[in-house]
Specification:
By secondary structure, the protein is α+β, with helices and mostly antiparallel strands. It contains six helices and ten strands, in the order αααββαββαββαββββ. The radius of gyration is 18 Å and the shape is globular. The ligand Nc1nc2c(c(=O)[nH]1)N[C@H]1C(S)=C(S)[C@@H](COP(=O)(O)O)O[C@H]1N2 binds next to strand 5.
Length: 260
């Protein structure tokens, strides 16, 4: 089992114990997320924390820092060197031929070049990245607000989520290779600090950290922040993506709403 998932489970087990021993205390609740009853307990807890956080947070901004707070380079995590052929071909040309595809429930599908993305009004923010593994990094991110791209695409009224599809194969399995994917809701998608970043610490975004384009969604944990973004789809449900829980790690037991 990947280390991240193990630690996440240990963390969740702590939380559950703290919540005053749900009736299942004693049996090893979280060693078996495949059990549907367990999954329902977790899912409803996640749903509750999602709704409570949404109520309390509104449009609150994540804390921002100064350059003096940047202590080290952004620590690469997860996939850091995609080996996918289409990605390697783009990287060989320094991503000059990259295009971000925007499709799904939109009036105007888009195919945006790197130049087009970088010509849009940019936002720069110094924020703290919290990984579920228990480490944090403060870094300066520059990119185009996702809201700007979405406004150009003109979402239809049924849209509820933004699905990000990535270049990198994160798992090679018997049932096929899995590429990283993530979803966020429209509250986070339209939040002012949610950007598609192409710059890190005043330079171009390095490959390790998701070049040429990665999501920053600052009020949630690191695994929500898809790197190597290939395409964006606007959807009304993610039930038909992967195993239906809204992201690569979510399909392996993590919370969909990873608010901090
Ligand atoms: N495409 C893709 N995005 C990803 C991952 C990944 O493996 N592939 N890992 C996630 C995790 S768990 C974290 S903590 C952050 C790490 O971002 P960093 O490498 O810039 O620190 O990216 C997230 N986004
Ligand atoms: Mo992470």
């Amino acid at each position: 089992m990947p280390r991240e998932l193990l630690q996440r489970r240990n963390f969740l087990r702590g939380l559950t114990a703290g919540a005053g021993g749900i009736a299942l205390a004693g049996c090893d609740l979280l060693d078996d997320t495949s059990d549907s009853r367990v999954r329902r307990v977790l899912a409803s807890a996640n749903d509750l924390s999602y709704r409570v956080q949404r109520l309390l947070q509104g449009d609150a901004l994540a804390p921002e820092f100064t350059r003096a707070d940047i202590r080290q380079p952004q620590r690469p995590n997860g996939v850091a060197h995609p080996q996918d052929e289409d990605y390697l071909a783009l990287a060989a040309g320094d991503f000059a031929d990259y295009r971000l595809e925007v499709s799904g429930l939109v009036e105007t599908p888009l195919s945006l070049s790197r130049e087009q993305l970088q010509a849009m009004p940019a936002r720069t923010q110094i924020t703290r990245h919290d990984c579920v593994e228990g480490w944090s990094c403060i870094a300066e991110w520059t990119g185009v607000p996702l809201s700007t791209v979405l406004a150009m695409a003109r979402p239809k009224s049924q849209v509820r989520f933004v699905l990000l599809r990535c270049f990198d194969t994160i798992e090679r399995g018997l049932s096929g290779n899995v590429k990283y994917y993530e979803t966020i809701d429209m509250v986070d998608a339209l939040h002012p600090q949610t950007i598609l970043a192409y710059g890190l610490n005043q330079g171009p975004l390095p490959i390790e950290n998701g070049a040429p384009l990665r999501l920053r969604v600052e009020r949630q944990l690191g695994y929500k922040m898809a790197k190597y973004v290939r395409a964006i789809e606007l959807v009304s449900t993610f039930a038909d993506v992967g195993d239906g829980r809204g992201g690569y790690w979510e399909d392996r037991g993590y919370d969909w709403y990873a608010g901090i």
